[in-house]
Amino acid sequence: MSGLRGMLGWAPHRPTPDEMSPEARDLLEHKRSPAERDRRKAAIKAEKQAPPAHRPVWRNRRWLSIALVNLMFVASFQFDIQLVEGALTASRFVGFHMADLNSALQVMLAYKTVVINLVIGTTTVLLMWLLLGGRSFCSWVCPYHLVAELAEMLHLKLGMRDHPMHRGMRTALWLVFSALAVVTGYTVFETISPVGILSRALIYGGGVALVWVGALLLFEIFYTRRFWCRYACPIGLTYGLVGTVSPIKVAYDAEACLHEGECRQVCLVPHVLHMTRMGHNAEVKMDIGADCTRCGLCIDACPTGALKFRIKGLEARS
Amino acid sequence: MDGDRRTLLRSLAAAALVVGVSMLGAIPIARGFVQRLRPPGALGEKDFLAACIKCGQCVQVCPVEAIVLADAEDGFGLGAPYVDARAQACDFSCDAVQCILACPSGALSHTLNAKEQVRMGFARLDRPDLCLARLGQGFKGVARSVGLHRYAKVDRWNPIPIADHPYDLPLCDLCVRECPIEGAIRLDPLGDDPLDARRTPVVTDRCVGCGMCEMICPTEPAAIVIDLPKEAKA
Fold first, then answer.
1. Span B209-225, mean pLDDT?
2. Does A17 score more than 80 pLDDT?
3. Do B104 and A99 make contact, defined as CB atoms within 8 angstroms?
4. B111, B152: one domain
5. Which of A90, A176, A227 is nearest residue B53 as measured by Cβ atoms?
6. For a disulfide at A201, which of A206, A207, B71, B175, Cβ 3.0-4.6 Å?
7. Does B2 have pLDDT greater than 60?
8. Cβ <8 Å between A187 and B11
């Protein structure tokens, strides 16, 4: 539940000693002992002197996934392969209806009629992302995520100062765009959705609408790091809600953690990693909250393997 | 505290900007800047834009690629499909109404199942002064350099470029000859004199507004055009 609150915009909560499990309390006490402090310091020093080879394994897999999924859409139309017809807003995958959850929501709220094909498509996609991790849609499929990652690299390379926003903004925008669809009777959000615009541009050819996508990217390079994905996109929140009950998680193990914060440096949604600060973990082993896009950047970044993917129920846990 | 306040103000400004840009999409709609000929089976314009999920599956199934997706100039209509009849009309080459079957969100209504039931618009003789039939003139050569059309006598299944199909007509009757709907348009004598070759196109209520006549019309601009249904203009 605290993950859900965090996703909606609340600041992460540091557990009081009473809220920590006895094991977590014991571990914290152990970590605070002078001997353990010295061991940790030595370990970090050794790590800085001989940094482990940094291979962006998960990032490369993810980029391949984004490229392949979007290429499947493009090839299906351009070469008439008919594998996934349509765009990311709605499609047929070898004949089966698929509908983006947020686009379908906008249509249902604006049209106020529920069409059976859309229900089928929405249910299929809902079940799919329930299994696959909710916001994993963002980091494994969304074409805007990929270009935003490149813009982020540029933002960091240029040493731009970040101007963070309030994370509650995304919740507010989700509510505003839902209300606008109901009140105006138009799918207002689709007009500015960089996901829809980019997906259609890839498949059917680009147009003036790409100027908006370009403006967002410039804003992210020069002003607010990852503005759209981090603070604005209602699609991310919709899939995030699905992800609350998904079995695919990034799991944290405080025992292996040296609390260096490498993971939070690379994370799109660092608030989900608040438990990696010393004394912020209520349990010794914890799952990362629903807002996590399962992108794996933290897993690649963690020098001690304290963060790993896990599928709930598929492995024995002590 | 000061930093928090600044973050909050910044966020409010950014959120207002995002919503503001999205609401710019209302301008072309309210002003009626864009009047689009929608694909067969489209709901009334307001419902159509609400129900359309902007995926382009209708674009993908059309054998003559008559359907294109709107750009940002259409505002809330961004990503919604339309037919630019002069460039490429819907000539029902698909034999059924494939775009309707492809639509996943009911924006193209499944209550239609034959081309004769479609009501996209209505043909109107816009420039009678240009109409070759009204001038009593024939037509020889290539009618249009753009556009695909299925000529059943040439190839029952595949549309070919209009440019590959020259005509030699003693009196131009292209709009009647290529109309895919039986009895939707005919040529009537212009006067009582039986020796007078001049004829005028008469559109009947069977016209579905597919735009084939507008596409094939060899004058520049086209003498015959498609008007949108009245509800679309409201």
1. 97
2. yes
3. yes
4. no
5. A90
6. A206
7. no
8. no
Please judge whether B46 and A232 are an interchain contact, meaning their C-beta atoms are less than 8 angstroms apart: no
Instruction: Name residue B19's amino acid.
Output: V
Q: Among partner residues B8, B53, B75, which is closest to A166 by beta-carbon distance?
A: B8
Residues of chain B with Cβ-Cβ distance to A212 below 8 Å are 21, 72
ipTM score of the complex? 0.92
Q: Is the pLDDT of residue B59 over 50?
A: yes
CATH number of the domain within which B41 lies: 3.30.70
Q: What is the pTM assigned to this prediction?
A: 0.93
Q: Which residues are registered as beta bridge partners of B125?
A: B224
Among the three residues B117, B152, B182, which one is the final residue of a domain in this structure? B117
* d(CA B80, nearest CA chain A) in Å: 10
Domain identity same for B143 and B206:
yes
Residue B1 has pLDDT above 50, yes or no: no
Tokens 């249902």 map to which residue?
Answer: A108
State which residues form the domain around B167.
122-233
Q: What is the rounded CA–CA span in Å between residue A305 and residue A308? A: 7
pLDDT-derived band at A35 (thresholds 50, 70, 90) equals very high
Helix, strand, or coil (residue A285): strand
CA proximity to A117, closest of A125, A109, A278:
A125
Both B196 and B214 in one domain: the answer is yes
Is the pLDDT confidence value at A52 over 80? no
Structure tokens at A218: 């410039």
Residues B180 and B227 in one domain: yes
Q: Where are the domains of chain A?
A: 2-40+247-311, 58-242
Please tell me which of the candidates B23, B47, B54 has its beta carbon nearest to residue A188. B23
**Contact pairs from chain A to chain B, CB under 8 Å:** 157
